[in-house]
Amino acid sequence: MFEFDALCREYEKLSYDQRRTMLTELADDILPALKLVANGTESFETLVMASCAADGKLSIEEYSLVKDATGLDFSFDRVAAEIKAMNVKDIQEAANTVADFLGKISADIKSEVVSFCLCICSADSRVTLKEKKFIKKLLA
Q1: Phi-psi region of 68 (alpha: psi -120 to 50; beta: other; left: phi over 0)
Q2: Is the pLDDT of residue 75 over 90?
Q3: Phi, psi of 30, rounded to the nearest 5 degrees
Q4: Is the Cβ–Cβ distance between 135 and 127 less than 8 Å?
Q5: What is the pLDDT of residue 85?
Q6: Mean pLDDT of the residues in the chain
Q7: Which residues contact 11 (CB under 8 A, 6 or more apart)?
Q8: Could you give the CA distance from residue 45 to residue 42 in angstroms, rounded to a whole number?
Q9: Is 109 in a helix, a strand, or coil?
Q10: For residues 27-47, b (16+ Cβ closer than 10 Å) or e, as one string?
Q11: Which is nearest to 12 in space by CA: 84, 83, 61, 80?
């Protein structure tokens, strides 16, 4: 448990540029693996949405980071409304299913998925208790 909290603190200390670089590199590794999955693009969006929704709201920092690092073009207001309306547990379960499936392909890819999600969760320089619970579930 102590190691997990220390890891979260490391992510919280990252600068915006460090997070953006990390997220871009992780996405470059994860996206080819998702091409092996039916609906791979939707699976990627599920990981992003679940990470952004982990604390129940979309922050401007999360939005900016994801948009800059992945090139996904989406409206802040539309995604914020979607997150507010969605069942967070359902999207997190879907993200966990994606992570578990990718883990069957490669433990390294699953590790990268967890890092990717943690990077998004830490975009506002903090990882809340709800976000930690989400990340821990992905690790299981």
Answers
A1: alpha
A2: no
A3: -75, -40
A4: yes
A5: 86
A6: 91
A7: 19, 118, 119, 121, 122, 127
A8: 5
A9: helix
A10: beebeebbeeeeebeebbbbb
A11: 61
- The torsion angles phi and psi of 101, rounded to 5 degrees, stand at -60, -45
Instruction: Indicate the residue type of 74.
Output: F
The amino acid sitting at 73 is D
- The pLDDT assigned to 1 comes to 64
Tokens of 70: 């992945």
The dihedrals phi and psi of 48, each to the nearest 5 degrees, come to -65, -50
> How far is 110 from 108, CA to CA, in rounded Å?
5
pLDDT at 2: 77
DSSP annotation of 71 reads -
Amino acid at 60: I
The DSSP H or E segment spanning 1 is: none
- Residue 83 neighbours by CB distance under 10 Å: 20
Q: What is the pLDDT of residue 73?
A: 77
Pull the structure tokens for residue 137.
Answer: 């579930």
Q: Contact 65/122 with Cβ under 8 angstroms?
A: no
Q: What is the biggest distance separating any 2 CA atoms in the chain, rounded to whole angstroms?
A: 37
Supply angle C-alpha 33, 10, 44, rounded to 5: 25
Which amino acid appears at position 136 of this protein? K
